[in-house]
UniProtKB/TrEMBL annotation:
<dbReference type="GO" id="GO:0046928">
    <property type="term" value="P:regulation of neurotransmitter secretion"/>
</dbReference>
<protein>
    <recommendedName>
        <fullName>Multiple C2 and transmembrane domain-containing protein 1</fullName>
    </recommendedName>
</protein>
<keyword id="KW-0967">Endosome</keyword>
<feature type="domain" description="C2">
    <location>
        <begin position="1"/>
        <end position="101"/>
    </location>
</feature>
<feature type="domain" description="C2">
    <location>
        <begin position="342"/>
        <end position="463"/>
    </location>
</feature>
<dbReference type="InterPro" id="IPR013583">
    <property type="entry name" value="MCTP_C"/>
</dbReference>
<feature type="transmembrane region" description="Helical">
    <location>
        <begin position="547"/>
        <end position="580"/>
    </location>
</feature>
<keyword id="KW-0256">Endoplasmic reticulum</keyword>
<comment type="similarity">
    <text>Belongs to the MCTP family.</text>
</comment>
<dbReference type="GO" id="GO:0005789">
    <property type="term" value="C:endoplasmic reticulum membrane"/>
</dbReference>
<keyword id="KW-1133">Transmembrane helix</keyword>
<feature type="transmembrane region" description="Helical">
    <location>
        <begin position="654"/>
        <end position="682"/>
    </location>
</feature>
<keyword id="KW-0770">Synapse</keyword>
<keyword id="KW-0812">Transmembrane</keyword>
<dbReference type="GO" id="GO:0005509">
    <property type="term" value="F:calcium ion binding"/>
</dbReference>
<dbReference type="GO" id="GO:0055037">
    <property type="term" value="C:recycling endosome"/>
</dbReference>
<dbReference type="InterPro" id="IPR035892">
    <property type="entry name" value="C2_domain_sf"/>
</dbReference>
Amino acid sequence: MYQLDITLRRGQSLAARDRGGTSDPYVKFKIGGKEVFRSKIIHKNLNPVWEEKACLLVDHLKEPLYIKVFDYDFGLQDDFMGSAFLDLTQLELNRPTDVTVTLKDPHYPDHDLGIILLSVVLTPKEGEHREVTMLMRKSWKRSSKELSENEVVGSYFSVKSFFWRTCGRTAFPVLGFCRPELQNAHYQNAQTQSLCLSDVHRKPHLWRGIVSITLIEGRDLKAMDSNGLSDPYVKFRLGHQKYKSKIMPKTLNPQWREQFDFHLYEERGGIIDITAWDRDAGKRDDFIGRCQIDLSALSREQTHKLELQLEEGEGHLVLLVTLTASATVSISDLSINSLEDPKEREEILKRYSPLRIFHNLKDVGFLQVKVIRAEGLMAADVTGKSDPFCVVELNNDRLLTHTVYKNLNPEWNKVFTFNIKDIHSVLEVTVYDEDRDRSADFLGKVAIPLLSIQNGEQKAYVLKNKQLTGPTKGVIYLEIDVIFNAVKASLRTLIPKEQKYIEEENRLSKQLLLRNFIRMKRCVMVLVNAAYYINSCFDWDSPARSLAAFVLFLFVVWNFELYMIPLVLLLLLTWNYFLIISGKDNRQRDTVVEDMLEDEEEEDDKDDKDSEKKGFINKIYAIQEVCISVQNILDEVASFGERIKNTFNWTIPFLSWLAIVALCAFTVILYFIPLRYIVLVWGINKFTKKLRSPYAIDNNELLDFLSRVPSDVQVVQYQELKPDPSHSPCKRKKNNLG
């Protein structure tokens, strides 16, 4: 075994691949067909300087080092800029060597594509086998349809044999999203341990700030369709983070008014790549133009209005960009606990006290998650063991534990802290098995709404399958604390939810389509049954009921006032509340949805097996997009009805109490203030909103409120399963001894 230290110095006279006569070059190293290194991207430079170090382990010297250079094109396929081979057998051992390689294109060997300058040192390694395999995301060139959930937690590019060593110097910096630490990896030999990263190397994987971006509008964009218009949307990318705007149909001056946040990992900032596209149903989308934002040139804690000219196209994009300091996010050992320190706990409680209502409205609360251990996990390796690690997610905030090797009952003992921006968020904890030869294997998952958490209680959560519909093998022990300001949380309920950047793309599913249709049918049938009931009163099918309805109709119409509408809704909420607290809860468990979700998961498993055979055929039919749209519309309509029902059913008490407060306020306002004054104030506010705040994001407070209420499907997914005592390893040991 040999250790190969490479310093990628610079490139000279590289090939121009962009229209502006420049390129955005980066370098890949491959050994034995496996990618072992990828450099950072140097933008708009034909003589780039990298000065990056890689430390690799090589089994033998027969395989040469394959060097490939590409021009990065966001949203498009990267352009090939040349390649070269470095024969490792020609290197002298233990001697630093400066190497200059000439880049060539195998198809055009006469073309001069420039040179790459390297410094290499080859050192023999004997008897040392400590290794750390880093899992990174697949290349962003692959579409999200090709990414499985495991690959989402996996990596930018599949690195099957990538070793990270300190080599007596500083550790080689991993690019992109990776796990913030790898430590305490125990192999069968107790003396062999994985590399333990120091805090210095761990900190860069926790974000240093937040980049808040508001996409306002586009101006004079390029017409791409035959009607002289376009259906534009915009893609943003900062490192591994991506965001796609909504599509604005048939316009060259779109008004998006969308706001989202990126995490800022680098102290100096970074570059946001922006591309504009025209949506074309049934064929490849048309490229409109690109631009970039250099965050290092922007001052912090200040909102910048940017009007960016689109390169390689026409038009401008108008954005608001704000750089702020990092929120409360950290990883520590169990011995370092913020809430157990009296001073820190008092500081946190003070930060979210009722007296600080209007101080930083986005900072709603504080979440601390202790990931203690897991028991009875699924064996994912052929040895009957697993190499489990945990992914802890809150919206777009994602942190990971270290890997515990060869263990079905791992102990992590880690404490994660998050800043809460929406109290209606759901904490997701997923357990994966690390596999150095491919993406991580899924072992189990739990989803815990923040409002359902009982502070300071260590609980055993049964791990669920990917669809969160049924149990899988194993339990995970968590202790969670939530501290939040109720007034801030209530105000944040009335603004749009944060959109998740990494979501599984919708695909056509016959079972999902049927499920959404039945859900919508159930909602519509409530209205149909109500109409039948009213009609039966008109037909005097039951004389007593019709007489009572007639008297009630005369009384209500004669005495009707507008304030009675919210009053009736308020009485309905109150009636259901007293039914629940008196033990007469008439809410039934939705077994129909549960059964359908389980059937859907079985169909997904079958689809995964047949995807290679049928995937390409399905994609070529344009009708699939129409079916997916119908499927999603059915889901939205059904979810809307279910959310209204669950509001009145007290599924989420916090939201039901909030509805009671709002209805009380509406009732009082309608009782004391004439309707014409209310309509006048509403109209003045609507007409002057753009004048008072030109870049305000449009929203509907009622729809934003309902978006926080879970649908029936989400209620099933968030249900906590009771652990089976017989599955506990401790119980099994006792039984075996008996």
